[in-house]
What we know:
By secondary structure, the protein is an alpha+beta fold. It has helices spanning 18-33, 44-55, 106-120, 135-143, 168-187, and strands at 10-12, 60-67, 70-82, 87-97, 126-128, 149-151, 154-156. The longest helix is centred in the C-terminal third of the chain and has 20 residues, at 168-187.
Amino acid sequence: xxxxxxxxxxxxxxxxxxxxxxxxxxxxxxxxxxxxxxxxxxxxxxxxxxxxxxxxxxxxxxxxxxxxxxxxxxxxxxxxxxxxxxxxxxxxxxxxxxxxxxxxxxxxxxxxxxxxxxxxxxxxxxxxxxxxxxxxxxxxxxxxxxxxxxxxxxxxxxxxxxxxxxxxxxxxxxxxxxxxxxxxxxxx
Length: 188
């Protein structure tokens, strides 16, 4: 099946514009609710904190794909640094397209705009994570040149791993519980 070419504008989101801020929250919420996202809506707390928190992150890139006046696609990227190449890299953290606009070339257009910006920033590579149960997204990424990373001359498939830290209050409460358990054990 031939994928359509998206002809709408791709533009940087203005995090200080209320309509752009609302579009970011709406698109990310739709992505979070999707089975390929988290399968549940964002909490009200996250929706309130999202855009103000993004404003505080240096070297972010937030792009909106628009169909007329409506934002239908979103990319949120963060610049990192490759120590092995001593150059910046750009990580695609979120790539979301409304279900009504999928298979219309929106993701491809967003990825092309991301690559253009990464080249402008002299990044050595783009990185992203893809769920192993999302073959459509993986096929798109592979068709656009994404694949295994390189460690020297070898091609290596890296695994994305995480350790959730929770909030500072949660971490403090966990440390206090652990301290009580350790105190109890040392007294026995």
